[in-house]
Amino acid sequence: MRIAIITGASSGMGRDFARLLAHEDIDELWLIARREERLQKLSEKIGLRCRTLALDLLDKNSFTLLADYLELENPDVVWLVNAAGYGMIGKVQDLSHEEQDAMVLLNCSALTSITRTVLPYMKSGGHIVQFASASAFMPQPEFAVYAASKAYVLSFSRALNCELRPRNISVTAVCPGPVDTEFLKIAEEHEAAAAYKRFFMGESRRVVRRAFLGAKKKKEVVVPSLSMQGLQLATKVLPHKLLLRFMK
After folding, report:
1. Beta carbons within 10 angstroms of residue 245's beta carbon
2. What does residue 171 show for φ and ψ, rounded to 5 degrees?
3. Segments of 125-174 assigned E as strands
4. 41 confidence band (pLDDT: 50, 70, 90)
5. d(Cα 149, Cα 221) in Å, to the nearest integer?
6. Count of CB atoms within 10 A of residue 29's CB?
């Protein structure tokens, strides 16, 4: 059985990736998120057999449950898409321990655990898509923990891509700028995003489409917009100290 596994599938880019992969040569989608009702609604509309796994990835027991499902079914995982993520805007001193721990646990630890759990079930030709962020390119004051967590995702994905090349499994890190999803509404609970970020807002389906095409081409990193490609270049040629001063 050929399957795709998508985390964060109940909304945003995870949901859009699920809709897109429903047209690929796979037998079943495994949709992972906390909100069972949303997963059910998506599975009813998607036009492909789906398995909904209402798992909280901040709970370590979730990885045991996923491992049990995989051992029972022994599928061929053709796609793994790690789209689950969490961010909160605000100064480190103003955010709670729980909020900051959750960013590190979900964006770094859970992503790593999911990837490690699924890897034994991937064969030659498989694709792993890890949603990082353009914030991974440099530190982000008042988004410090989130940006640092996404820098981890970018570094981890690039290294893993090298490790898995002999197995012909590609790993693609996707680095969009701001995207018009529920994520931003949650992130702004304490503090609004910088006004200039509104000018670079991306559309979820377009970002996902470019991520998908880049992954099919086995690209190591996909930066979906020209503006974020410009940022990436700037972070390579200009001192971060200067860029941080400009952002401030």
Report:
1. 9
2. -125, 125
3. 127-131, 170-174
4. very high
5. 16
6. 26
CA 46 to chain centre: 20
Active site residues: 146
Three-class DSSP category at 76: strand
Contact between 33 and 54 under an 8 Å Cβ cutoff? The reply is yes
- 53-89 residue pLDDT tens: 999 999 999 999 999 999 999 999 999 999 999 999 9
- Residue 81 and residue 17: Cα distance in Å, rounded? 8
Q: Which two tokens stand for residue 118?
A: 């699924």
Residue 178 dihedral angles phi and psi, to the nearest 5°: -60, 135
C-alpha distances (whole Å) from 111 to each of 23, 29, 88, 228, 240 are: 25, 18, 18, 23, 27
- The strands making up 127-131's β-sheet, listed across from edge to edge, are 50-54, 28-33, 2-7, 76-82, 127-131, 170-174, 221-222
In the numeric block, which tokens belong to residue 201? 């807002």
Question: What's the rounded Cα separation, in Å, for the pair 171 and 220?
Answer: 6
Residue that the structure tokens 């793994």 belong to: 80
Helix axes 111-118, 144-164, angle to 10 degrees: 20
**Which residue in 92, 97, 181 sits closest to 143, CA to CA?**
92
Hey, what are 213's tokens?
A: 């095409």
Is the whole model's pTM more than 0.85, yes or no? yes
The angle subtended at Cα 211 by Cα 14 and Cα 30, nearest 5°, is 35
